[in-house]
Design a protein that fits this description.
Elements lengths: L1 H38 L8 H34 L2 H7 L4 H7 L1 H34 L13 E3 L2 E8 L5 E9 L8 E12 L7 E13 L6 E13 L17 H6 L4 H12 L3 H12 L12 H23 L7 H17 L1 H16 L1
Antiparallel strand pairs: 1-2, 2-3, 3-4, 4-5, 5-6
Helix pairs in contact: 1-2, 2-5, 2-8, 2-9, 5-8, 7-9, 8-9, 8-10, 9-10
Length: 366
């Protein structure tokens, strides 16, 4: 059907443009954050784009419904402004019929959203955690770059040279700030440092040779000085460098179904199963809220409609939190979706309901 092909082409192209822009904005902010972490030496710059790729499905789970809804609003608004909707209505095609013509496209978006939430997003989170686990414990001598001062947590380290296997350092300077008041800062100068591999230990352990160790008390001339031929130094991992993500969000759907009695698991399971149906609600809301007159412009209803659709997402997030606390059951997800669907159906019938209500009010007055 010509009208269906025209509508699908317009909605699909507009939605993809909006989704691309929203993705660039959100992922750009994340990329800047990771660049900052990499600049501090706590993350290998070579894996930045791999991290972004693994995080992309997680972001798309929220971007896709919003982009689809904005695309629908823009296309329907243009139909009203350019008088195309009036021509279609005059030809016997109502806006509800147009919405039905877009159902196959909506189902397609629903399937993509389901794939993202059920499989791709958890897989991406698991790959992201596996990739960053080794980076999360980068601290101490893992961070060293030749002839650069590197800071990580309470440590500051400098080395004039570093072996290719990162096991040996030359002309080492090490400074550690005290973690408590009254404790001394520690400064170590050593001719060489050698990495010591320790099993089941995430800390960096190194053997220093031919050096001096100073204990310095801040704001005081007091200090102590010790010379050594060999000294073993243990540096704890920088906990601030760790990347955190919910364990439940990374679980495959089969694990969620097996342990669905747990409230936290139930909240995540319901989130994955019911949030994709926001695509259908988005179509219903856009059909009902996009009506504008040519003089008003197609952007007049966009912001209020966005607030309504955003309130749906916020309501689902609030439901997820309440379920995780075992305050309500998983039935709340479809209940919220049903409420918004009924509201959309009422909004779409306002043209028919308004004259009837007006007549009833006039009769009551008379």
């Amino acid at each position: 059907m010509i009208i269906r092909r025209y509508l699908v082409k317009q909605v699909l192209s507009t939605s993809l443009v909006v989704i691309s822009l929203l993705t660039l904005i959100m992922m750009g902010g994340r990329l800047i954050k990771y660049f900052g972490v990499a600049a501090q030496g706590r993350l290998d710059a070579g894996i930045l784009f791999s991290i972004i790729g693994y995080r992309l499905p997680e972001f798309l789970t929220l971007i896709l419904p919003l982009g689809f809804f904005i695309g629908l609003m823009l296309v329907f608004g243009r139909l009203y402004v350019d008088h195309e909707m009036a021509v279609l209505n005059g030809s016997g095609v109502s806006r509800n019929q147009l919405a039905r013509l877009l159902m196959p496209l909506t189902v397609g978006f629903l399937v993509v959203q389901t794939a993202l939430m059920v499989w791709m997003s958890p897989w991406g989170i698991r790959q992201f955690e596996a990739l960053t686990t080794s980076q999360a414990v980068r601290s101490g001598f893992d961070l060293v770059r030749p002839k650069e001062f590197i800071s990580s947590g309470p440590y500051t380290i400098y080395a004039s040279a570093l072996s290719e296997d990162r096991q040996n350092l030359k002309e080492v300077f090490f400074y550690q700030r005290a973690d408590k008041d009254g404790k001394p800062d520690v400064m170590i100068l050593a001719k060489e440092a050698t990495r010591v591999e320790m099993e089941n230990d995430t800390a960096s352990v190194v053997d220093l040779t031919l050096g001096r160790r100073y204990e310095i008390y801040p704001n005081s001339p007091k200090y102590s000085h010790t010379e050594f031929e060999s000294y073993r130094l243990r540096l704890e991992s920088d906990k601030e460098a760790k990347f955190e993500s919910g364990e439940v969000e990374a679980l495959p759907i089969s694990k969620l179904i097996e342990t669905r009695e747990d409230p936290v698991v139930a909240s995540e399971l319901g989130w994955r199963l019911f949030v994709p149906f926001t695509m259908i609600v988005a179509l219903m809301l856009a059909t009902a809220l996009s009506e504008v007159s040519p003089r008003q412009g197609r952007y007049l209803k966009l912001f209020p409609a966005l607030l309504i659709f955003a309130s749906l997402i916020v309501a689902l997030m609030a439901i997820k939190t309440r379920i995780s606390k075992d305050e309500i059951g998983m039935w709340a997800y479809p209940a919220v979706l049903l409420v918004y669907a009924i509201a959309a159906a009422i909004f779409s019938r306002k043209q028919k309901l308004a004259p009837k209500l007006k007549k009833r009010i006039e009769r009551a007055r008379s």
